[in-house]
Design a protein that fits this description.
With 355 residues, the chain is mainly α. It contains 14 helices and four strands. The chain has a single domain, classed as ABC transporter involved in vitamin B12 uptake, BtuC (Orthogonal Bundle). The strands form two sheets. Strands 1-4 form a two-stranded antiparallel ribbon. A two-stranded antiparallel ribbon has the order 2-3. The chain is globular and about 65 Å long.
Amino acid sequence: MKPPRASGYFRTAYSQDFRLVDTRTQRASLAVFLVAALAVPWVASSFALDLANQVLLAAIGAVALMLLTGYAGQISLGHAGLLAAGAFTTGILFKELAAPIWVTLPASAAVGAALGLIFGLPSLRLRGLYLAVSTLALHFIVIYFGGEYETKRGFSTGVVIDPPMLFGWTFSDARAWYYLLLVAAAATIVLSLNLLRSRTGRAWRAIHGREAVAGALGISVHRAKLGAFVWSSTLTATAGCLFAYYRGFVSAEAFSLFLTIQYVAMIIIGGMGSILGAVLGAIFVVLFPYAIEAAMNVSTFAEQLSSYVFAVNYAAFGLVMILFLVFEPQGLVGIWRRAQDWVLLWPFRQRPLGK
């Protein structure tokens, strides 16, 4: 007789705990998603493909900020400054030394790591609003030096960068960029997920919950905080390098303080403390302005509202953030999890005790 089959998924070895995907359903879903993602450039229009590239770029930066704020609990308002640091490092190396991407990319990451270490030092003494203000200084310092470089070198319209070349392939069209950014975003997500399951990630969660308790458990709070800033800054500066190559130019005006607010909105709307939430938030924030413009175009008052499109976008963006903070603190990932539970439990509904 055959032994009875177990109903469900059970781990029988410690090595199985290291798997990111450990069920047949998850593996099948991931395979379908990968096939669909690889097919996007062949079925999407040029406009839709550009939106997809913007989402992938934003997802890298959002995941980086989620590590710092959503998991380690360190508030930062210098995210746009770190993106600018990576972008200007790329632009300066390209203009002054004609450096290729395999030089500018690690150089941007190194600059981001150095800035994360320097501006992470205040986190050892400050917290909350005071820490946010200290990181805001990073934004203004990087933008100032970037603007000074543009002015002194006579780049009034920004630093123009040629398309990068890797393995003899020039990334000059949106389709090639899509695959490059897809690989970069996937690598960032996998790296972050594995990092969060490591000792470092558990330390971040501990200091986010309560620093005193984490220290009492033997966790080096100072090392964990600095590590969170370094990792987040490295990934963010790398995203800035890719942003510079994708756009083909670097300008200080492209990294306004509103860009930082957008990335903070991504992790809030997506759902704090979740890598999936960072990705969902990036998708929402990138596509939201285009959805508002499309809704205004089909409105009967399209001509009257056309001159107020930017004001309407800002107002709608702020309203959405407030609504999520008040009515859906868990963000889009909370909605996704509830929908997933409803599908898994249907048609069996939970009933109150005693009924």
